[in-house]
Amino acid sequence: MNYEEKINNYRRTFEISFQDFLKNEADKKQIPPKLYEAMAYSLQAGGKRVRPVLCMAGAELSGIEKFSEKVLPIAIAFEFFHTSTLIHDDMPCMDNDELRRGKPTCHVIYGEALALLAGDAIPLWGMKHAIEGLIKNQIPLENIINALLIFLESAGATGVLGGQSLDIESDEAKDMEDIIITTSMKTGDLIKASVKTGAVLAGISGEELNSVDSFGYYLGTCFQIIDDILDETASAKDIGKTPGKDKKQGKNTFVSLLGIEEARMLAENCTNKAISALDASFSGDNAELLRDFAKNLLKRAY
């Protein structure tokens, strides 16, 4: 099975579980209808499902057959949290964008107040599902707790939310170190946590987990570099959001500091480091999807 077939299988498996959860009548009956509508609108807007796939691929590193399906509850929680950050990021008080995943943003359709509440409610809903689902799938409690700690740390003030606070002050960033710190928190931490959480739930620890951590760090950095490149070079149709936004807002990015060609070279360097980190502990087929993911991510820069 080649890379495209395998990653599409992961996406299909995830999507079935994801949609089944959204259609759960018991949950829908407990949520005020208009709030549920706003939540479901953003959750069903599409997306590449990067973080869930990485979580499932992290679980596959263990070599335990079909263990990737056992981590689906937290893979869903990652997608929920990521979607919530997009809702908030697009609001007028943040980046003030009217397009996300090729559709009008949540606040454009439902108003700012309901969008804010939807963005707050979605990750809590996802976390509740993750805890219930992982226990039901009989994953050891210690592994569940460790995975949740990784998830929460990556999402909070020392992770994504802290990175977003730095991002809105990015006009004050003067050098590459500032950009890397912001990137590692806002984008990289959730990418890293996705892979690492899947691995932890599957029982991976010690030096092997350190390798996963390093892989996730460099992959997350590469992800943001490429996002900065696409913001300069791609169309709204290609990326599903308004291009040129960073430049218009005067934000410092990898591209504004390095230029496109040097940014591409840095992305390639990060990709090589990510794969080398993985190869230090995982030499077999179990890591092939993650290696191929890193290589295919880099192709988007060109």
Total of DSSP H or I helical runs spanning 4+ residues? 17
| Beta-strand content estimate | under 5%
In total, the number of strands is 2
Q: How many domains, as an integer?
A: 1
Structural class, from helix and strand content?
mainly alpha
Oligomer class: single chain
- The gross shape turns out to be globular
Report the span from N to C terminus. 26 Å
- Overall residue-averaged pLDDT value: 90
The helix content, as a percent range, equals: over 70%
CATH class: Mainly Alpha
| CATH fold category name | Farnesyl Diphosphate Synthase
By CATH, the superfamily comes out as Farnesyl Diphosphate Synthase
Which residue ranges are poorly predicted, with pLDDT under 50 across at least 5 consecutive positions? none
Q: Largest sheet, order of strands side by side?
A: 1-2
Give the radius of gyration. Answer: 18 Å
Main pleated sheet? 2 strands, antiparallel
CATH architecture: Orthogonal Bundle
Explained architecture:
This protein has a single domain (3-299), classed as Farnesyl Diphosphate Synthase (Orthogonal Bundle), CATH 1.10.600.10. It is 74% helix and 1% strand. The chain contains 17 helices and two strands. It has a two-stranded antiparallel ribbon with strand order 1-2. Strand 1 and strand 2 form a beta hairpin. The chain is globular and about 45 Å long.
How are the elements arranged and paired?
Layout: H1 3-22, H2 25-30, H3 33-43, H4 50-60, H5 67-70, H6 72-90, E1 99-100, E2 103-104, H7 106-110, H8 112-136, H9 141-155, H10 160-167, H11 176-201, H12 206-233, H13 236-239, H14 245-248, H15 254-258, H16 260-279, H17 288-299
Antiparallel strand pairs: 1-2
